[in-house]
């Protein structure tokens, strides 16, 4: 069953997190067909800014009542986790 999740850590005054997004979910929102195309690292990287915008539009983090900017550092397709 497809699922996505977010794992957050607070370390040395910084938030770090890992977002695992199921390829079917991302492909649907990015109009990629078939979804498995997003498992290609080059294609996934080429869509990095669009993926980041999807995350920013749907995830709001606040610290002391103020929004925290979300920065997408890397995209790592994980075909073995299908």
Explain what this protein looks like in three dimensions.
With 82 residues, this protein is of the alpha+beta class. The protein is built from 3 helices and 4 strands; from the N terminus they run ββαααββ. The strands form 2 sheets. Strands 1-2 form a two-stranded antiparallel sheet. A two-stranded antiparallel sheet has the order 3-4. The N and C termini lie close together (9 Å).
Low-confidence spans: pLDDT under 50, at least 5 residues?
none
Q: What value does the average pLDDT take?
A: 90
Portion of residues in helices?
25-40%
Helix vs. strand class:
alpha+beta
Strand order of the largest sheet: 1-2
Number of helices: 3
Shape: elongated
What is the ordering of alpha helices and beta strands?
EEHHHEE
Strand content: 15-25%
Question: Can you summarize the main beta sheet?
Answer: 2 strands, antiparallel
- Span of the ends, CA to CA: 9 Å
How many β-strands, per DSSP? 4
The rounded Rg comes to 14 Å
List keywords for this structure.
alpha+beta, two-stranded antiparallel ribbon, 3 helices, elongated
